[in-house]
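User: Design a sequence. Structure:
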């Protein structure tokens, strides 16, 4: 059975569960929420449903029920590498099944077939001022391809069918996903490598091809595979996932939805944090003449950052309450890679891990004093020569697309409603509080 047939079977099994919950148990309360949650970004209010990943505050992310180490162990590996195919991971996110080598190969072949970036996208990228942020370029390239949406075309021709429209979304998502790595690579080479380009190598998988197209070493191929998988999904309430879902809930197609999600990812409190972490860490190392500081020197620098009203980038999380396993996974990669293990920048990041949680605890504001994914990822990129900070969020975006596109395929399959939470006025909240 091919991926689409497996997915169809899963969707047919899942639909009655959702329908039953709404029809027979629709009045059952899920929870209660407070004024602080209403004003504070809806934090902790359970108002989204996804089966693709779940974020436990203490344990971190599980993809389809599996922890990060379990996911890496279970998926078919690229021959000659300890890391899995990104394509097999896509299969897992969509179906909940660990694919066989043959099932993985089906996605590898499909994405190769779809990977050609249309010339008009290249023209649009080239027409943008060269100092445009790479995330603006990435988002523009995605939305420019909207004219190719199969979902939008069929909808405009009156062929919308609630039961089968997920199939159009599925096709759009595969085409879009296949093109994201070549688009990212094109932006990278155009902006930072003298506008010289490297064509795709049809013998390589998605992650390896990205490494190849940006002009990286063989070693970086595993970095790309790891990076895309680690950044893929973090349940559906984070800004990029929620935005993608929200826009898709208006029956906007995958191109509009993903482009919107990418715009959300570009914010400093979300995906841009990895750029900020590295800039902050590099500046710090530079001030010390390249020497890794003492614990005392570092502690002082962290307090200086906090006292000047800034956050410690890469630390804290809206949901997590312990060290992000995505941080741990990348830390282990550094510890197991000979040159990286002794790399001064990694040593500094490791020292921050020792010192920052206590400082944040004493500071007493952040609910989570532990590092998130962004505290580690930039160091690895820098070590391999991807030194253009502003590009890091594009890498994040390619990975994040895996999660959000799998989610919106399921949104269509289960017929999730258009989002429309209710607003209140400040006066209404004062009344609820009994102060009026
Ligand atoms: N350094 C200093 N102060 C911090 C902090 C940090 N790393 N993390 C949180 N705080 C502060 C908040 O600014 C807030 O202060 P306020 O009451 O004066 O507004 C207070 O602690 C309570 O915040 P919180 O409930 O713990 O966090 P949140 O859910 O509001 O925000 C996050 C979460 C990630 C935006 C925040 O921890 C932060 O700004 N971290 C640094 C930036 C970062 O690493 N972002 C990446 C997140 C992961 C990702 O999306 N890629």
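Assistant: Done.
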């Amino acid at each position: 059975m091919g991926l689409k047939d497996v997915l169809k079977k899963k969707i047919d099994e899942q639909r009655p569960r959702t329908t039953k919950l709404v029809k027979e148990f629709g009045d059952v309360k899920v929870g209660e929420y407070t004024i602080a949650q209403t004003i504070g970004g809806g934090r902790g209010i359970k108002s989204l449903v996804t089966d693709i990943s779940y974020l436990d505050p203490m344990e971190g992310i599980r993809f389809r029920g599996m922890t990060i180490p379990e996911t890496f162990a279970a998926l078919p590996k690229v021959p000659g590498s300890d890391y899995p195919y990104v394509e097999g991971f896509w299969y897992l996110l969509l179906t909940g099944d660990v694919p066989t080598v043959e099932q993985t190969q089906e996605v590898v072949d499909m994405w190769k077939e779809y990977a050609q970036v249309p010339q008009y996208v290249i023209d649009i990228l080239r027409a943008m001022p060269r100092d445009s942020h790479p995330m603006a370029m990435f988002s523009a390239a995605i939305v420019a391809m909207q004219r190719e949406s199969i979902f939008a075309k069929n909808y405009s021709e009156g062929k919308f069918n609630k039961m089968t429209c997920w199939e159009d979304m599925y096709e759009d998502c595969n085409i879009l996903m296949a093109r994201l790595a070549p688009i990212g690579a094109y932006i990278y080479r155009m902006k930072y490598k003298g506008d010289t380009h490297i064509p795709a190598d049809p013998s390589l998988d998605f992650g390896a091809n990205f490494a190849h197209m940006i002009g990286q070493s063989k070693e970086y191929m595993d970095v790309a595979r790891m990076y895309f998988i680690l950044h893929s999904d973090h349940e559906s309430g984070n800004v990029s996932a929620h935005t993608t879902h929200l826009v898709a809930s208006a029956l906007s197609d995958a191109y509009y939805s993903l482009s919107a999600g990418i715009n959300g990812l570009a914010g400093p409190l979300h995906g841009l944090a990895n750029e900020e972490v590295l800039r902050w860490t590099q500046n710090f190392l530079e001030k010390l003449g390249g020497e890794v500081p003492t614990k005392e020197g570092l502690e002082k620098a962290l307090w200086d950052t906090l006292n000047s009203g800034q956050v410690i980038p890469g630390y804290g999380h809206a949901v997590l309450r312990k060290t992000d396993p995505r941080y741990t996974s990348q830390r282990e990669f550094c510890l197991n890679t000979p040159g990286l293990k002794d790399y001064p920048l990694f040593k500094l990041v490791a020292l921050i891990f020792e010192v920052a949680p206590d400082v944040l605890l004493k500071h007493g504001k952040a609910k989570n004093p532990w590092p998130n994914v962004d505290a580690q990822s930039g160091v690895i990129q820098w070590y391999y020569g991807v030194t253009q900070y502003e590009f890091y969020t594009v890498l994040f975006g390619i990975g994040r697309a895996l999660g959000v596109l799998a989610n919106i395929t399921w949104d269509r399959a289960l017929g999730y409603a258009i989002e429309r939470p209710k607003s209140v006025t400040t006066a209404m909240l004062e009344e609820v509080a009994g102060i009026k």
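The chain has a mean pLDDT of 96. Residues 165-192 form the longest helix (28 residues).
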